[in-house]
Amino acid sequence: MTKTPTGRPTTGTSARVGRLMRNTGAVARAVWQGCPEEGLPPVRKLRRTGWLGQARISGEHTDPCEVQAGTEKVTDWRTAYTAHGDKEPVANEYFGLPEDLFDPDDDGALDRAVDAIAHLPVVLLSGLYDGMEDGLARTKAQHAGGTDGWDLIEAYVRLGLVPPANALNLPHLPDPDRPERLTAYLIAAYLHGACRQAAGQLRYDARMTRRLLSLPRTPAASHRAGE
User: Fold this and answer.
1) First to last CA, the chain
2) Mean pLDDT, 10 residues at a time, over the chain (227 residues)?
3) What's the rounded Cα separation, in Å, for the pair 227 and 225?
């Protein structure tokens, strides 16, 4: 930890994160030379989405005894959503999409998004959370091979979005049915999101550290420091 001219400490990590993010872009450019196929933008042009999380479609934390007693009701959101593209989710979960993903003045935006992921075992859901949210869900069961995550990562980039590293994990194994150039692109897109997420967390931690160090020391803290 170093000190700024004003005497405030700084973690000194922002420069390292910046270099890591630039290196991620350099790796992407070196591996796939811009884009692996027509229709996919360079990683740097993917839209950053902020914090998108995974949600359960019905209450997994509901107490079954309370449900049986009639004091608590299970709200199964699966009865409310709309699944697009003649596909249905197989798991009781979905992964969020930005609220403003679709332009309300563009009547074809939703259809284009559905077509973009039609070849993937992923379905676009709308009408979640009282009709206010969209999401993505798997249409085939997860297996032990460790390659399922590629489909969700690819679905995000097909929609022009950086995959949310806070909700998805980079698969441990490559998908043998997915071209190497596309896999390299997906890795670069995921790492880009992970770097952005880490940078945001570091900025938050730095603000909290500065705030904590600026607080006056209490008598109890001063007494403990002198022991």
Assistant:
1) 24
2) 42 58 63 71 85 73 64 60 89 88 89 94 86 87 74 95 90 86 88 76 73 74 54
3) 6
